[in-house]
Design brief:
CATH architecture of the largest domain: Beta Barrel
Number of domains: 2
Distance between the termini: 42 Å
CATH superfamily of the largest domain: Cyclophilin-like
Helix content: 25-40%
Mean pLDDT: 96
Number of strands: 17
CATH class of the largest domain: Mainly Beta
Low-confidence stretches: none
């Protein structure tokens, strides 16, 4: 039973492959459910979150307004005058109880292929502006950019950083942080770059910028501030005006469960695409494939000895590099 000032209102203990589930009061009309009192980083938790989210929404009780799935949690927004929180928790618990084996999970997952121009001129302008106006001599700015620092803190080369971006699919655990933005994580652990965020943040970032903060990749949907380390620029993934056919049903491209696949392209090609998305022409054809993500196949891949050994070596190099890399 929760105490008077305890936000955790109920717990479901771990059982076999089912994780511990915590329910937190998150406001008058919000319940947050999350896995494990001690946070862990495991993509399998996100796959389960996505599946439970779909199950609850398919048989949604009256009064459920929306959900906000993330890596290991889901925020349920409901109308407390219509839906009792006890009823909502029971619906979620029933869904959890029915999902016994995580390896059997399959869900819709679009593969979105995007071009990226590494070390482009626009993101370099953002870094130069930061060093001039915010933090002169910032240690994460090496030769006027962030990619050398990213390589430094990961114990690898700049080319390895680029290869890490293009050699793995990036999985979206959920949208948030900024309109239309997604939180993308590498599905191949051998390419799990980890970098500290800017300190303090930037005041400007161009639309389409691609950056990494911690282990998370983000495509900046609009010009804004920001704190992720920058290494390149991609094409529009958000459009308020909704003039391009991709955005006719809404300004946001990304959905929870999507995967990104980057391929390197010249900056001129990336810049040209902007005029075919935002106008005067609206004829750019996005490369998006409807697909089904099978967790069993993912686990078989992740558990291969060469993948496990490669990930271990990458993490060992990171651990050594962090000892000597400049702190932000």
């Amino acid at each position: 039973m929760a105490g008077k000032y305890d936000a955790v209102i109920e717990k479901v203990p771990q059982e076999d492959s089912r994780p511990e589930v915590l329910f937190r009061q998150a406001g008058d009309g919000f319940i947050q459910m999350e896995y494990f009192a001690t946070p862990r980083f495991d993509m399998v938790d996100s796959f389960r979150i996505q599946t439970i989210d779909k199950m609850v929404k398919e048989d949604a009780p009256d009064g459920l307004i929306e959900t906000v799935p993330s890596l290991r949690a889901n925020l349920f927004h409901f109308d407390p005058e219509v839906l009792d929180r006890r009823r909502l928790i029971d619906v979620i618990k029933d869904a959890e109880a029915s999902l016994e084996h995580v390896e059997d999970i399959e869900f819709e997952s679009r593969l979105i292929k995007l071009p990226i121009a590494f070390e482009d001129s626009e993101t370099k302008k953002a870094v130069a502006k930061y060093e001039k106006e915010v933090r002169p001599g910032a240690p994460n700015v090496i030769d006027g950019y962030n990619i050398e620092y990213m390589a430094l803190v990961n114990g690898c080369s700049v080319q390895t950083v680029k290869d890490a971006v293009t050699n793995t699919d990036w999985y979206n655990s959920g949208n948030g942080f900024w309109p239309g933005g997604g939180f993308f994580w590498p599905l191949d652990p051998r390419y799990a770059l980890v970098v500290p965020k800017y300190n303090p943040p930037r005041t400007w970032t161009p639309e389409g910028t691609v950056g990494i903060g911690g282990p998370c990749l983000f495509v900046y949907t609009t010009p804004t501030g920001g704190g992720y380390q920058l290494f390149g620029r991609s094409i529009p993934v958000f459009q308020f005006a909704q003039k391009h056919p991709m955005f006719k049903d809404g300004p946001t491209m990304f959905r929870a469960g999507d995967r990104l696949k980057f391929h390197e392209a010249p900056e001129e090609e990336v810049v040209e695409i902007y005029s075919h998305v935002h106008g005067p022409q609206f004829d750019y054809e996005y490369d998006i494939t409807e697909d089904v993500f099978k967790v069993r196949d993912y686990l078989d891949f992740r558990n291969q000895p060469e993948v496990q050994e490669g990930a271990k070596k990458f993490q060992e190099n990171q651990a050594e590099a962090v000892k000597t890399a400049p702190k932000l």
